[in-house]
Amino acid sequence: MQGLFYFDSSFRPVPLEQHFIGVKGKAGSPTSRGNLDKAVFNKVEQLLAQGHQLMIFVHARKETVKTAMTMRDMCRDEGIAELLMAGREGNVKLDGIKRDLLTSRNKELKELFESGLGIHHAGMLRSDRNLSERAFESGLTRILCCTSTLAWGVNLPAYAVLIKGTEVYDSSVGKFVDLSILDVLQIFGRAGRPQYEDLGVGYICTNQDKLTHYIDAITSQHPIESK
Fold this sequence. Notes:
Elements lengths: L1 E6 L8 E8 L6 H20 L4 E4 L3 H17 L16 H8 L5 H7 L3 E4 L5 H12 L5 E4 L2 H5 L6 E5 L2 E4 L4 E4 L2 H8 L11 E8 H12 L5 E2 L1
Helix pairs in contact: 1-2, 3-5
């Protein structure tokens, strides 16, 4: 199931499309995780083919690396790995970023950069997070896999943002809870580049039984018309 909603608010410099994508399987199960990866990749493939950059938001630090490597491998399997390198040719920032990467001890950051992907989470060194931000802002990485701390702390927009799953572990209660609507709206706020784009696109990819909750809650936040 997929819904598409659209709003143009005076609080946003560009309008935003909102997509809600449901996958089958019990949340957290191997089936659900596999279906999430496939659904996310379908959008990744589409957006890369259109020449766009995107951020994939996940909810655990280790998941940033896991998701980035999964997307890299799926791009290779589908023969579209070259799309991940679309921002490299003639980019004057490339040599500087490569030089700075030599000082990093983050092996995953270095490995993924070579394939056109980036990672970003609060557990990384500030210098490594700065590198990820600069590489993405310069167009040298096409996909940035990150946690929601990026949405709250850094003004780094993309044409599209994709929320992969909506279960977040809450240590205060010792269990997984639903991603808050406030976090979803903050993440969606990263979509759209006022100086480059006339539209931003936000996707939520979650289990089918969670769709109605997010559609109802998010579409009630703004005057939205179906498109």
